[in-house]
């Protein structure tokens, strides 16, 4: 039986590995190959060496998009994780328990459903919804309230180059928080209730319990969340393409690499598009590896 297990396992692996190689690895390899060619989609690809990458590094739009990703990489994970951890703590531990047992705030089950609702909406739907919310006139939800409250001029959330990117980040945070509330709630459910009960018996406040118990024991989950949110910051094409004015505007204030790739494809400049795609893939991998390395901590066992 021992000698026969390897052919048995190999037989089961052949099909999925083959499908993975064809539909996942093969497109990556083809993209890397095409990034070194000039290709308009309907012509024969011609070898260009590093020409596409050199042009990319000299383009102002590339560095502008990269700067926007850098801002997103800081604020999107930071805000989403901070909000989600606090909400998850309140839903699981923040209430007044009975008989010395920990519990969430009153109505925590209802709040879980409310927080998760944005997650079930497709990102383009969320973008269209917030395009209405951000309208720079009385028909916009926010400006309608502000103008009725006495403000003289409407706020141009998506037409002011200083407000456009923060407004888009706010939408991404709103859409992502619900999932991470559920994720962190699952992580907190794995923390033995006896730890919280012992802390309460010792007179520890909720703030002390949050910073001294919950955060350290939840660190591995937070680390994973940071990586996923960083990848989301690189993958902001859908929300930007719907919300941004004038194709990444105003004045390029919201452009991202995904949008630049889309623009190159519309211009049939597939060599440039694949070069940007390779850069986006490499940046995502570097960010994930760097985050996992920097945030590595000693594992807490209980």
UniProtKB/TrEMBL annotation:
InterPro entries per UniProt: ABC_transporter_permease, MetI-like, MetI-like_sf
Protein name per UniProt: Sugar ABC transporter permease
Database matches in Pfam families: BPD_transp_1 (PF00528)
Keywords associated with the record: Cell membrane, Membrane, Transmembrane, Transmembrane helix, Transport
Subcellular location: Cell membrane
ABC transmembrane type-1 domain location: 66-291
TM stretches of this protein: 6-29, 70-90, 110-134, 163-183, 226-244, 273-292
Membrane topology type: Multi-pass membrane protein
PANTHER family assigned: ABC TRANSPORTER PERMEASE PROTEIN, DIACETYLCHITOBIOSE UPTAKE SYSTEM PERMEASE PROTEIN NGCF
CDD domains: TM_PBP2
UniProt record similarity statement: Belongs to the binding-protein-dependent transport system permease family.
Organism superkingdom: Bacteria
Organism in which the protein naturally occurs: Dactylosporangium maewongense
């Amino acid at each position: 039986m021992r000698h026969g297990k390897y052919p048995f396992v190999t037989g089961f692996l052949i099909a999925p590995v083959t499908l993975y190689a064809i539909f996942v690895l093969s497109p990556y390899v083809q993209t890397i190959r095409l990034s070194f060619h000039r290709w308009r989609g309907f012509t024969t690809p011609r070898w260009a060496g590093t020409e596409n990458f050199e042009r990319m590094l000299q383009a102002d739009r590339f560095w502008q998009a990269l700067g926007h990703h850098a801002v997103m990489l800081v604020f999107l994970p930071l805000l989403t994780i901070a909000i989600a951890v606090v909400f998850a703590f309140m839903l699981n531990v923040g209430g007044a328990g009975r008989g010395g047992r920990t519990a969430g705030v009153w109505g925590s089950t209802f709040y879980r459903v409310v927080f998760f609702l944005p997650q079930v909406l497709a990102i383009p739907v969320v973008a269209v919804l917030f395009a209405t919310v951000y309208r720079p006139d009385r028909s916009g939800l926010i400006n309608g309230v502000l103008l009725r409250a006495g403000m003289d001029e409407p706020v141009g959330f998506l037409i002011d180059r200083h407000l456009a990117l923060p407004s888009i980040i706010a939408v991404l945070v709103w859409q992502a928080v619900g999932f991470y509330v559920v994720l962190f709630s699952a992580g907190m459910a794995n923390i033995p209730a006896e730890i919280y009960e012992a802390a309460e018996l010792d007179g520890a406040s909720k703030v002390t319990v949050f910073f001294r118990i919950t955060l350290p024991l939840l660190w591995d989950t937070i680390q994973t969340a940071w990586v996923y949110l960083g990848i989301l910051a690189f993958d902001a094409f859908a929300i930007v393409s719907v919300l941004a004015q004038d194709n990444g505007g105003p004045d390029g204030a919201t452009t991202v690499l995904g949008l630049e790739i889309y623009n190159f494809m519309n211009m049939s400049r597939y060599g440039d598009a694949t070069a940007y795609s390779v850069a986006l893939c490499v940046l995502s991998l570097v960010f994930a590896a760097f985050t996992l390395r920097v945030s590595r901590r000693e594992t807490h066992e209980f």
